[in-house]
Design a protein that fits this description.
- This protein is of the alpha/beta class.
- It has a domain of about 90 residues.
- The protein is built from 4 helices and 5 strands; from the N terminus they run ββββαααβα.
- α3 crosses α4.
- It is globular, with a radius of gyration of 25 Å.
- The N and C termini lie far apart (about 60 Å).
């Protein structure tokens, strides 16, 4: 086996393999070499890479989005913030009650107020909801999505 060579060329002495070369030696820039056909997926023999042409089954269903403070992040258009402080924020503290109990208390509180319940259905239906909770954790926004969209 010989490593090195000109232009980053790597020669491997194996039957059927003459040489493997670095993308830069074939005139492909290192930054663009990971992009094949704008999909970010290398073509596989006998398989067509997923290109997003078939949407997931729940693509039209509103979802919960995690708010972020990272540079360049923007809230998606049409998403509504349901975090504290605000009309749709959970008034029950996760630190005091625990996550499950705070979410249950929020749901009971919301269902006990017909005018707020109707406002949620009117204002939140069909919108993605944004909160600070991690996507892997339960959140009051999940309850709001269910109530607003009749799920």
């Amino acid at each position: 086996m010989h490593l090195g060579g000109l232009n980053g060329q790597v020669d491997i002495d194996r039957p059927g393999v003459t040489s493997l070369t670095h993308p830069a030696s074939r005139g492909i820039s290192p930054r663009a070499s990971h992009r094949r056909g704008r999909t970010g997926v290398w073509p596989c023999a006998g398989r067509r890479p997923y290109r997003g042409s078939v949407p997931p089954a729940d693509a039209d269903r509103p979802r919960r989005i995690q708010l972020r403070r990272t540079k360049g992040w923007r809230k998606p258009a049409g998403a509504i913030v349901v975090a504290r402080p605000g009309r749709w924020g959970n008034p029950f503290s996760v630190a005091e009650l625990g996550r499950a109990e705070a979410i249950t208390a929020h749901r009971r509180w919301l269902l006990a107020q017909p005018e707020l319940l109707e406002a949620a259905r009117r204002e939140l239906a069909g919108h993605d909801l944004a909160c600070w909770c991690r996507p892997s954790e339960a959140c009051h926004a999940d309850s709001l999505i269910e109530i607003a969209n009749g799920i």
